[in-house]
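Sequence design from tokenized structure. All designs in this work follow the same two-part layout: the structure record, then the generated sequence. An example of the structure record is given first.
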């Protein structure tokens, strides 16, 4: 037989052997498949964790081995609770995809996934979510396809329930033993690590998602709507309020504006040129209550603040706005963001996100100019004192270039993608600073409108909910755990303005106001300062947190 004939036979047999190999479906036990998944998570889904916890694995091989055994064991415990025969493929596939996506965002933006971050995701509307779902988010899922193929290709061995429970108990005992083996060689180092770098546990995925999701669900069961507990039931307005003109306070809650890029704070660029021409008080040293809207917004409207922070206590009780309403000060929430996080529940609300005003809205989003549309009309519908809250979209990332009209594109070139790693720091900062200039314009425009509003003494108070990382130390966006959040995410701008009538009625001392503005403040001051500005008396009021108290005259 000739060589050419043999070669032809060999070539023709290769496809048949490949097809035969593809038809093979190995049989494994549930526990065997779970163990493979645990090892996969430890080796292939936790790159960010390994870079942070063991950056030199070969020279730290004992430490690396200990962490590997612990991470594998931790996932083993979770899988032993979640994975059962009829749901094994679905649950494991979902976890592989979740781990791939979580790993992508942790690597791309330097984020940590804790309960607050999971709550942010669950409460994010589709508009915000769509801005983060770029093509790059699909790449890690494609990279995880081999793991998904294995999960769906293998056959899972059937067992009786009694034998299955026995094997599961043995598996659970085994992974606990593996975890103990991981602790023993590095007990002292592990103790120091967990004490000094506790937040690194938020990088272990998908365990970080599972633990955080369990915490959020236990605190906020799906479908369970709990009425907010009342507070400030003794709140009343001072009799002096009836002896003056009605007051209108416009409280503007900014989004993702950081103090470092605020022009009035001395930033290299003048990102606040219009406010600089108005008689405003700028507060250069203000600390946020949290590094995300989900934390800061309820906190800044609570009397507890950061000083006495208790997440459950804050979320279960009414807010500053309910206290004002109870005292007779009308309130209204105008929203161009993702809601008030419970702060305005049961109170008058205007959701402006779905408006279609030409020049301000594109059918998906509205620029913040929509918040000024109809503002005067809303004020005129109420007699007496009132507080109107404007909740801005502000500098919400990562698509900063979509937060302002083209006319405000002063700094170029700008980053136009949600994948910030594709952009230079200069492009990201240019887009971010342009968005700040638009905020400056809106605040100045609001001041102009309030100046001309008849029948009221008017004031405006602006403060951002949290800051933003723009690539410093490899971090982007916000939402870091408070204990390790960088100053860029926690230091925020604040500005106040009072009409001449308001200044006269409170007999405000200008030099005192300037001294107060230069001092250090925080979100903790907002609750008590607003009570003071509206002459509301309640046992909740703390004079030491009222920014303007010492600047009022005898009148």
């Amino acid at each position: 037989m000739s060589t050419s004939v043999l070669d032809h036979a060999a070539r023709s047999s290769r496809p048949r052997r490949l097809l035969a190999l593809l038809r093979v479906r190995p049989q494994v036990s549930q526990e065997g498949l779970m163990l493979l998944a645990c090892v996969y998570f430890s080796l292939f889904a936790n790159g960010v964790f390994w870079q942070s916890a063991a950056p030199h694995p070969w020279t730290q091989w004992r430490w690396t081995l200990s962490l590997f055994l612990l991470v594998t064991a931790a996932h083993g415990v979770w899988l032993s609770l979640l994975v059962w025969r009829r749901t094994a493929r679905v649950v494991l596939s979902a976890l592989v995809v979740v781990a791939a996506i979580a790993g992508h965002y942790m690597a791309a933006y330097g984020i940590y996934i804790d309960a607050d971050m999971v709550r942010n995701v669950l409460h994010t509307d589709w508009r915000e979510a769509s801005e983060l779902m770029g093509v790059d988010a699909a790449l890690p899922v494609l990279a995880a396809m081999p793991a998904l193929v294995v999960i769906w290709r293998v056959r899972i061995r059937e067992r009786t329930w009694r034998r299955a429970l026995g094997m599961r108990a043995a598996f659970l005992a085994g992974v606990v033993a593996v975890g103990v083996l991981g602790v023993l060689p590095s007990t002292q180092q592990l103790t120091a690590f967990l004490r000094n770098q506790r937040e690194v546990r938020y990088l272990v995925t998908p365990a970080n998602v599972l633990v955080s999701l369990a915490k959020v669900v236990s605190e906020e069961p799906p479908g369970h709507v709990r009425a907010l507990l009342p507070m400030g039931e003794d709140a009343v307005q001072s009799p002096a309020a009836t002896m003056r003109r009605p007051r209108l306070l416009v409280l503007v809650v900014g989004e993702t504006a950081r103090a470092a890029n605020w022009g009035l704070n001395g930033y290299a660029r003048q990102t606040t040129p219009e406010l600089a021409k108005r008689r405003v008080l700028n507060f250069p040293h203000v600390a946020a209550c949290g590094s995300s809207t989900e934390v800061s917004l309820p906190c800044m409207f609570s009397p507890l603040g950061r000083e006495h922070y208790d997440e459950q206590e804050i979320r279960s009780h009414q807010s500053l706005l309910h206290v004002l309403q109870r005292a007779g000060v009308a309130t209204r929430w105008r929203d161009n963001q993702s809601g008030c996080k419970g702060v305005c529940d049961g109170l008058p609300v205007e959701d402006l996100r779905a408006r279609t005003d030409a020049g301000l809205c594109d059918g998906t989003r509205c620029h913040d100019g929509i918040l000024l549309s109809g503002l005067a009309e809303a004020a005129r519908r109420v007699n007496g004192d009132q507080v109107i809250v404007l909740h801005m979209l502000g500098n919400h990332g990562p698509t900063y270039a979509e937060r302002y009209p083209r006319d405000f594109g002063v700094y170029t070139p700008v980053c136009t993608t949600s994948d910030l790693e594709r952009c230079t720091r200069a492009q990201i900062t240019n887009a971010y600073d342009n968005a700040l200039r638009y905020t400056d314009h809106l605040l100045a425009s609001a001041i102009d409108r309030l100046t001309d509003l008849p029948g009221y003494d008017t004031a405006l108070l602006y403060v951002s909910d949290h800051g933003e990382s723009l690539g410093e130390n490899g971090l982007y966006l916000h939402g870091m755990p408070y204990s390790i959040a960088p100053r860029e995410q926690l230091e925020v701008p604040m500005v106040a303005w009072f009409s001449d009538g308001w200044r006269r009625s409170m007999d405000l001392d200008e030099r005192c106001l300037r001294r107060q503005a230069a001092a250090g403040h925080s979100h903790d001051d907002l609750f008590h300062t607003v009570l003071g500005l509206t002459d509301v008396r309640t046992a909740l009021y703390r004079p030491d947190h009222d920014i303007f108290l010492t600047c009022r005259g005898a009148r």
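The mean pLDDT is 90. We note this feature because it recurs in several other targets discussed in the main text.
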